[in-house]
């Protein structure tokens, strides 16, 4: 997914940390080696780093893959349960009550994981491939955008908006959240929200965890942002088409989708991060037709928590 990324030199930057509501102290931080990431040839088109975000963070440019933690006064750390951090598949470290979706397919009552009408959803954009999807779509659909792609493709992000589609957050840089500390999780969420606000003037309601990586530690954080988790009950595994060892073919995906269509309900996971997965999505639209819902329509909910005026 980050094939188009290139590492730039390690940089030093200043982050102003809001200590309570009173003092502001400057803390010097060094970006890790994988920080300071930019898209080749796209930087001039980036969402400008807004003054309100400089005022709040002390920074003047968008972070790399490992965004810095900026404390937020509305987050109560004592509300976050102490489940253990783990890598993907390292599921034994936590009890079943942690309610992990990727480990045990567990969902909480406020998670959205299905839909009354079988509907597609798209993760990992916006990318140039997203535009081909926009050309084809005759119904409103849901995109879960990465913050880092949002600030690097602001015009594509706004075109998705102008076409009336719903956009939720997919974190800043596609981290597997259960492997992160609470502070790192907050950083992934806050920077994705700031990217969406700086680019689209709105604050999202819907959150799709990368790799389905969510448990009650992560929910305790995302709920404090007002976000609601969106999972799925039908997986195309379309990303396997772009992985080094493809264990899935286009035709297997189309066969699955035709089968799912018979039951009429559900939420389908797809990706607009690559041309190959978008090629598949265009054919899936032909199979399913346009009688689909956005995630907010699935649950009769709102599209965004807030829309700001410019
Ligand atoms: C969103 O952007 C507006 C400026 O358009 C700013 O005043 C506001 O503080 C931002 N809110 C968040 C949560 O990013």
Automatic annotation (TrEMBL):
It is found in: Prospore. The keyword Metal-binding applies. Residues 116-296 form the NodB homology domain. This is chitin deacetylase. Belongs to the polysaccharide deacetylase family. One of its GO terms (cellular component) is prospore membrane. Its cofactor is Co(2+). Its main location: other.
